[in-house]
Amino acid sequence: MKFKIEVRDERSGPWWETFDIEGCTDEARIRGWVLATIKSFNDSLRPGESPRSFVGGIEIIDEGTKHHKWTKQNLGTKADHRGTFDLMKCAECGCTGRRYGLGELGIKRSAEFKAKKWVTCPGATAANRRPAGTEKR
Questions:
Q1: Counted domains in the chain
Q2: Whether pTM exceeds 0.85
Q3: Do 70 and 129 reside in the same domain of the chain?
Q4: 88 and 136 part of one domain
C-alpha cells in the first residue's frame, strides 16, 4: 500500500515521507510498521543524525505497487549461453520469466510479458490469466 506519514526530528518541524510497502493493508498495520521502522532508525543513528519521531499523521494514497509473487518452476537449475537460471512464474497473474542469479532483481520476464503492463503484478484477474490448456511447457 502506498501512504504518507508525518515525522519530525529535534532540529526541524514536521514533514511528510511517502512509502510503498507491501503487507501494510490498513492503518493499524501501517502504524505498526512506522513505529518499528522509526525505532530501528533511531537505534542505528550515526554521529550527527537526529532521532526521528512519528507525529501521528497517516495519509493512505492508493493500493501501491503490486509485486509479482514469484515461484520456482523447475527442480534443478538450468543453463544457457547467458549462464545458469531458474524458471519462475508469478502465483498471482501467471507472468513467467527466468531468474539469473539470486533474488527478484535477476528475473527477466519472458518475451510475451515484456510489455510495461507486466512490470508490476496486475493481480489474479480473469483478463490476465491465460485460457486453460494454453500454458507453455
A1: 2
A2: no
A3: yes
A4: yes
CA atoms within 13 A on the CB side of 115: 7
According to the model, what pLDDT value does residue 104 have? 67
Whether residue 86 is found in the same domain as residue 52: no
Range of the domain at 11: 2-62
pLDDT, tens only, 52-92: 999 988 888 876 567 788 899 998 888 888 888 999 999 88
For residue 130, pLDDT over 70 is answered with: no
One domain for residues 21 and 51? yes
